[in-house]
Amino acid sequence: MVDIIAKKRDGAALTKEEIHTFIKGFTDGEIPDYQASALCMAILFKGMNKEEIAILTDEMEHSGGTIDLSGIKGTVVDKHSTGGVGDKTSLAVGPLVAACGAKCAKMSGRGLGHTGGTLDKLEAIPGFRIGLTEKEFIDQVNRIGLCIIGQTAAVDPADKKLYALRDVTATVESIPLIASSIMSKKLASGSDAILLDVKFGAGAFMKTEERALELAKTMVDIGCLLGRDTRAVLTDMDQPLGLAVGNALEVKEAIHTLNGKGPADFVELCISSGAIMLEQAKIVDNEEDGRKLIKKAIDDRSGLAKLVEMVEAQGGDSSYILHPEKFPLAANIIPIKAKQSGYIARIDPLAIGLASMKLGGGREKMDDIIDYAAGVMLTHKVGDKVSEGEVLAYAHTNKNDVMDALNQIDGAFVISKKEVSIPPVVHNYLSGK
Questions:
Q1: Which of 58, 78, 120, 159 is catalytic?
Q2: 229-236 and 193-200 as β-strands: parallel, antiparallel, unpaired?
Q3: N or C: which end of the chain has fewer CB within 10 A?
Q4: What letter does residue 325 receive in the DSSP assignment?
């Protein structure tokens, strides 16, 4: 291990055998944390080439059990977001692509900090089960074309250990380590095709478009080198996605979107992502035809019907999908009003995400209990004209002492006297071809 650390420290490429020695030894507990930390730091400074990153990903993917989805008929598609504020895309896109005939099998995670997790949002639906067996998972995808479950403990144990170590050794930012972490989990989950939604901006892990593009290219290269159809979209996270931030609030927004009443930026992301996934699933020949099919699944409510089907299949109460007003509201709904007239120039997504967490809608630590009703509901987006005293957002909470969160929401809005252009939600697309 000392030789491997020294080799990477000096900028040389590691062999398949050396990377295997590291991942197997670290996962089995034979290589101590301090040596693994040293190698992570060497990778942070010296980087890795495409082949090294693909080998690292492959070794991590096979460090534990993998999900065999060969029993699913057709091309299995999956989508992964690098995490953002108000990102409830899977709740709408999964049902939409399944309604168009694609097979969507997704393993999701929980939220921590200012970003929300798909599983927490689904568990806001009474009775919804995320803990299915592998057989139940495959059977459901074959039967209705869609299933979203939690990641199993057996999948990618190397990543779990390595991620925890990177978190406390200031090596989280390394693109080879981020890319191998994300892609090893996605590949272990067994899908044939993967669409990556790589966020950039104030509310994302990648703050600049350049860094997000580098990460996206790295992950697309990994997937293609390892034989999967992997594509990526670069999307804006310089303001929250849609209007709703918080678990039940976001589920309701996904339902409204499937009813044809979603906010423009969220609808556009659903249509563009869904269109690419339909092309990957070989349902359509091009993205333009995919867009038409996704729009049709919104217009004829077949996407909504598919969400109802998935909720019922996983033990949830589908009456909440058909009647979203049934979701209980928080005891306190507090308006945040504009202090001046003008145009909204900015809505800081990090401030909104952290405020939602403080209101009870997220976790600071993994064992924190979430209040599904808590969160922030925006009434305006960047570019909107507002008058002094007009409501900008509502804070939803069952807590009483939330002044810090309210100040954070208030401070998230920047109002300009000059007209502001509306930023696009999708900035770039990498096909991997």
A1: 159
A2: parallel
A3: C
A4: G
Could you read off the pLDDT of 254-309 as tens digits, one per residue? 999 999 999 999 999 999 999 999 999 999 999 999 999 999 999 999 999 999 99
Q: Are residues 236 and 352 in the same domain?
A: no
Specify whether 384 is catalytic.
Answer: no
Instruction: Please answer whether residues 303 and 102 qualify as being in contact, where contact means their C-beta atoms are separated by less than 8 angstroms.
Output: no
Answer yes or no: do 134 and 34 share one domain: no
| 9 in a structural domain | yes
Angle at 327 between CA 324 and CA 332, to 5 degrees: 125
> Which of these is catalytic: 79, 88, 114, 166?
166
Which range of residues forms the domain containing residue 379?
329-416
Q: Among this protein's residues, is 318 annotated catalytic?
A: no
Known catalytic membership, residue 185: yes
In the chain, how many domains are there? 3
pLDDT, tens only, 311-320: 999 999 999 9
113 shares its domain with 207: yes
CATH of residue 8: 1.20.970.10
Q: Is 291 a catalytic residue?
A: no
154 with 283, same domain?
yes
DSSP assignments along 107-150, one per residue:
EE---BTTB--HHHHHTTSTT------HHHHHHHHHHHSEEEEE
Query: Which one of the listed residues 58, 63, 78, 80 is annotated catalytic?
Result: 80
- Kindly name the residue from 88, 185, 199, 380 that is annotated as catalytic: 185
pTM for the full model? 0.92
